[in-house]
Structure to design on (193 residues):
């Protein structure tokens, strides 16, 4: 990586860190391009070299979420038996929400829903990876024939939406208990022959 590429990456990370700090401290409503530029130590022209709008900052957060799950899939999930992959995926998803999105999720969630409603946000990589794991389990015969891909996917979407809503509703104080996680694992185990 040459000097120019390193500078580009440093500036991008400074913008991202500024967005995360502002949203965590003050909420999404207080996020402004001017505030991001001040915190990152850049001018408006530099900002617009990286992002077109405030919405793009949110879309970038979604891309970082996607990258995390792509790396997880490529590094660990792809070669695991389906049952183990679903359990690890569930653990990682809950852990990601808990450790990386605590305050930002509260503010970003409504914005993401708004972008999705306007057709600006497509299915994310985490969702696509979940579909891959389920398809793999069905194709290999590991998952019982009495369950459809759509039903399994819907279960996980409802589960994760519930985790996110509950987490937001309790201002980051509530995630599934160990007992609830064990129940989720029992359900995952019931999918398999």
């Amino acid at each position: 990586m040459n000097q120019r590429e390193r500078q580009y990456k440093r500036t991008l990370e400074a913008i991202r860190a500024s967005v995360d700090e502002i949203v965590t401290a003050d909420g999404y409503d207080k996020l402004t391009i001017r505030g991001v530029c001040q915190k990152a130590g850049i001018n408006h022209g530099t900002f617009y070299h990286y992002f077109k709008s405030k919405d793009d900052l949110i879309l970038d957060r979604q891309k970082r979420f996607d990258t995390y799950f792509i790396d997880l899939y490529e590094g660990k999930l792809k070669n695991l038996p389906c049952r183990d992959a679903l359990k690890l995926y569930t653990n990682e998803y809950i852990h990601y929400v808990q450790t990386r999105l605590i305050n930002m999720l509260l503010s970003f969630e409504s914005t993401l829903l708004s972008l999705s409603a306007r057709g600006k946000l497509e299915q994310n990589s985490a969702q696509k990876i979940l579909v891959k794991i389920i398809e793999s389990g069905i194709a290999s015969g590991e998952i019982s024939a009495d369950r459809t891909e759509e039903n399994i996917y819907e279960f996980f979407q409802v589960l994760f939406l519930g985790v996110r809503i509950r987490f937001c509703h309790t201002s980051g104080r509530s995630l599934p208990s160990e007992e609830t996680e064990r129940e989720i694992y029992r359900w995952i185990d019931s999918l398999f022959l």
About this structure: Residues 167 and 174 are 5 Å apart (CA to CA). Residues 3-26 form the longest helix (24 residues). The mean pLDDT is 84. The radius of gyration is 19 Å.
